[in-house]
Automatic annotation (TrEMBL):
Domain ATP-grasp: 279-462
NCBIfam families to which the protein is assigned, alphabetical: PRK10446.1, rimK_fam
UniProt keyword annotations, A-Z: ATP-binding, Ligase, Magnesium, Manganese, Metal-binding, Nucleotide-binding, Protein biosynthesis
MF terms (GO), sorted A to Z: ligase activity
Record flagged with keyword Electron transport: no
Superkingdom assignment: Bacteria
Alphabetical list of Gene3D superfamilies matching this protein: 3.40.50.20, Acid Proteases, ATP-grasp fold, A domain, ATP-grasp fold, B domain
PROSITE patterns: ATP_GRASP
Annotated organism of origin: Marivita lacus
Keyword set includes Repressor: no
Cofactor or coenzyme needed: Mn(2+); Mg(2+)
Record-given protein name: Alpha-L-glutamate ligase
Length: 477
């Protein structure tokens, strides 16, 4: 197929040291797009080069628009998808050899062949029916290549097998991503996630979780928002408020069923929010925590207190958050009164031993992708045993021990959370996990640690959603 657009500018680049010889078909690499091997047809009758692209989607600012698209580099292998993105440098009307005109986005990218590289411009179009997923026009070849039109494969032959090996991970670039932040709040954490993502060239959208609704079916599960189907995101960062946990985790499950990478899965959010279940999981995996007891019958109050130890005790609502619903009972009688009051409200609660040596301080460890990336010591305001920053507590950078680090990592792993705040008390018998938070705030930890936590989270996301190898198809018996 020959394309006849208006004359585009000449390709940029220094060009090869010596002219390369091309036949009518050659193997080339487009490393900037994460395409280590693609078979290209050489067509000197076409000025413009073309690359096969599906699911073309424009994003970014109007001043610096970008385009996302998918490439199926191997003909007949629609299951192998390499997601790509690049800045848009132009939009041109291209007329094909059959006389049809199509408006196409134009991008610039490095092409590598025969050990040499130079920048070329390519238009994006659907070449799914073509045996060659790329066409190289004369503008990309001018001053670089001699053509022998009766022959093919003068340059080193590449192999599609590269897409089935781990080598493709190192070749793939840091492409722009489309990320959704599930949040109902316009706060520091949400704004930092948007700011950091956009600084890296990603498209970040804040989605109000309660305004999402779902099409639940086996063939085409989807999430809708404001009357429209949401696009396919590369990653979703859940910031689910405690009050909407059931519905919020249902939305997260829907994204999981679509196949979207979710930083914190629905199961981990649900189990970490249920404090009883959370403590049962921690105990099952032998992770240190304060002695804890739970009972339903008011007749068991004395035995319940006895299981934990002597006063003072902590009585904590299962739905407590940010220090609300957490009471310190200085005496056994006070503990019984608080328990009776909670039962009168038909509220579920836990009773825990009070770790005196913690002295109103705890350690918040921020775990990202299985590593503690930052930690801070939180100290309660004068006269308050709770160290929550929302209740007037203060934070400062702290050095943690190897045991504390290992405890935090193990606790996050128990819940399957890729991004978690693990709160630890320092006791005479070692670190004790108070809580694992699936939506940790960024403000306090970034200020105290002087680290770019949002950036570290995006590092993990970019690593997770990079194009990955696909299994080879088994040959039929």
């Amino acid at each position: 197929m020959s394309d006849t657009p208006s004359d585009p500018p000449a390709p940029k680049g220094t060009g090869p040291d010596t002219l390369l010889t091309f036949g009518w078909e050659e193997w080339v690499s487009l490393p900037d797009l994460g395409l280590p091997a693609i078979r290209a047809k050489i067509d000197t009758g076409a000025r413009t080069s073309a690359l096969h692209a599906a699911d073309i989607e424009v994003f970014g600012s109007t001043n610096k628009p970008r385009v996302r698209f998918a490439v199926h580099p191997i003909p007949g292998r629609e299951d192998l998808i390499i997601p790509c993105s690049a800045p848009i440098i132009d939009r041109r009307d291209v007329t094909s050899s059959n006389g049809e005109t199509e408006s196409r986005y134009v991008i610039a990218t490095q092409m590598t062949v025969g050990g040499q590289s130079w920048e070329i411009e390519v238009t994006l179009t659907d070449r799914g029916t073509m045996s060659n997923r790329m066409l190289l026009g004369r503008q990309a070849l001018k001053d670089h290549v001699n053509i022998v039109p009766s022959e093919r494969f003068h340059q080193p032959e590449l192999d599609f097998e590269v897409y089935h090996t781990r080598r493709v991970r190192s070749i793939a670039p840091n492409r722009a991503l489309r990320v959704a932040v599930l949040s109902r709040e316009n706060n520091y954490s949400t704004n930092r996630l948007v700011e950091e993502g956009e600084k890296r060239g990603h498209s970040v959208e804040v989605i109000d979780t309660t305004r999402c609704y779902m099409a639940i079916n086996a063939m085409a599960p989807d999430v809708y928002y404001d009357g429209k189907r949401l696009p396919r995101y590369d990653a979703v960062i859940p910031r689910i408020g405690t009050s909407i946990t059931p519905y919020g985790t249902a939305v997260v499950r829907q994204f999981e069923s679509i196949g979207t990478y979710v930083v914190n899965g629905s199961a981990g959010i649900t189990s970490s929010r249920d404090k009883l279940h959370a403590h049962q999981l921690l105990a099952r995996h032998r992770i240190g925590m304060p002695p804890t007891a739970f009972a339903n019958s008011p007749k068991d109050t004395s035995n319940l207190i006895g299981l934990v130890g002597t006063a003072p005790l902590i009585v904590k609502l299962l739905e407590s958050t940010q220090g609300k619903g957490v009471v310190l009972a200085e005496t056994k009688k006070a503990a019984e009164s608080v328990i009776d009051a909670f039962r009168g409200l038909k509220a579920n609660f836990l009773v825990q031993d009070f770790i005196k040596e913690a002295a109103g301080e705890d350690i918040r460890c921020l775990v990202v992708n299985g590593k503690v990336v930052a930690s801070m010591k939180r100290t309660g305001s004068e006269g308050d045993f709770r160290s929550n920053l929302h209740r007037g507590g203060t934070a400062q950078k702290v050095r943690i021990t190897k045991e504390e680090r290992d405890t935090a990592v193990r606790a996050a792993r128990v819940f399957g959370l890729g991004f978690a705040g693990v709160d630890i008390l320092r006791s005479h018998s070692g670190p004790k996990v108070l809580e694992v938070n699936s939506s940790p705030g960024l403000e306090g930890i970034e200020l105290a640690s002087e680290k770019n936590i949002a950036g570290l989270l995006y590092d993990a996301i970019e690593e997770k959603v990079r194009p990955t190898p696909v299994p080879r198809r088994k040959k039929p018996l």
